[in-house]
């Protein structure tokens, strides 16, 4: 890999990976988008997300779907995995977890568009699936974000107790 592509990456290829059990957005790393002139989606599926209920401290489990249209910087996947793992002992409501992840990724990358969808397993007989998105202000992606949010759940998926 050329220096231009791996500039600033410390986790990828590191054999001494350390897992952090407390929320830490400083784990996130970026690299330069090699195709900033083209709009395209990058999607991450994270089926092993875990956090804690801030009241009962019981574990909450979810599959997270993170999609974004990069601008100049992209999130490195190993750093994203370690960052998401850092929620393991973090106490926050489902909605807060999803919004915090979106906020951290927006601050990190300044993407054209981003969405985070958490599909949490039922606890107490109810599942919660928070969805948040963002379109960069003053661009066509701002309208895309509104359109996707306003039509987000027109055709809800069947719930099969996951």
From TrEMBL:
InterPro entries: GTP-CH-I_C/QueF, NADPH_dep_7-cyano-7-deazaG_red, QueF, QueF_type1. Its EC number is 1.7.1.13. The keyword Nucleus does not apply. GO terms for biological process: tRNA queuosine(34) biosynthetic process. Substrate binds at residues 75-77, 94-95. Keywords: Cytoplasm, NADP, Oxidoreductase, Queuosine biosynthesis. It catalyses: 7-aminomethyl-7-carbaguanine + 2 NADP(+) = 7-cyano-7-carbaguanine + 2 NADPH + 3 H(+). GO terms for molecular function: preQ1 synthase activity. One of its GO terms (cellular component) is cytoplasm. It is an enzyme of class 1 (oxidoreductase). SUPFAM superfamilies: Tetrahydrobiopterin biosynthesis enzymes-like. The keyword Oxidoreductase applies. Its main location: cytoplasm. It is found in: Cytoplasm. The active site is at residues 53, 60. Pathway: tRNA modification; tRNA-queuosine biosynthesis. Catalyzes the NADPH-dependent reduction of 7-cyano-7-deazaguanine (preQ0) to 7-aminomethyl-7-deazaguanine (preQ1). Belongs to the GTP cyclohydrolase I family. QueF type 1 subfamily. NCBIfam families: QueF-II (TIGR03139). This is NADPH-dependent 7-cyano-7-deazaguanine reductase. It comes from Sporolactobacillus nakayamae.
């Amino acid at each position: 890999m050329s220096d231009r592509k791996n500039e600033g990456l410390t986790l990828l290829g590191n054999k001494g990976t350390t897992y952090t059990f407390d929320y830490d957005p400083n784990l996130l790393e970026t690299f330069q988008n090699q195709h900033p002139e083209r709009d395209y989606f990058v999607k991450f599926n994270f089926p092993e997300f875990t956090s804690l209920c801030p009241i009962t401290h019981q574990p909450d489990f979810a599959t997270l779907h993170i999609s974004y249209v990069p601008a100049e910087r992209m999130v490195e996947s190993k750093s994203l995995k370690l960052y998401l793992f850092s929620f393991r002992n973090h106490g926050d409501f489902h909605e807060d977890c999803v919004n915090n992840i979106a906020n951290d990724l927006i601050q990190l990358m300044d993407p054209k568009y981003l969405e985070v969808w958490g599909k949490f397993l039922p606890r107490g007989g109810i599942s919660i699936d928070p969805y948040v998105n963002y379109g960069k202000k003053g661009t066509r992606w701002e309208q895309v974000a509104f359109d996707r949010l306003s039509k987000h759940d027109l055709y809800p998926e069947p719930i099969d107790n996951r």
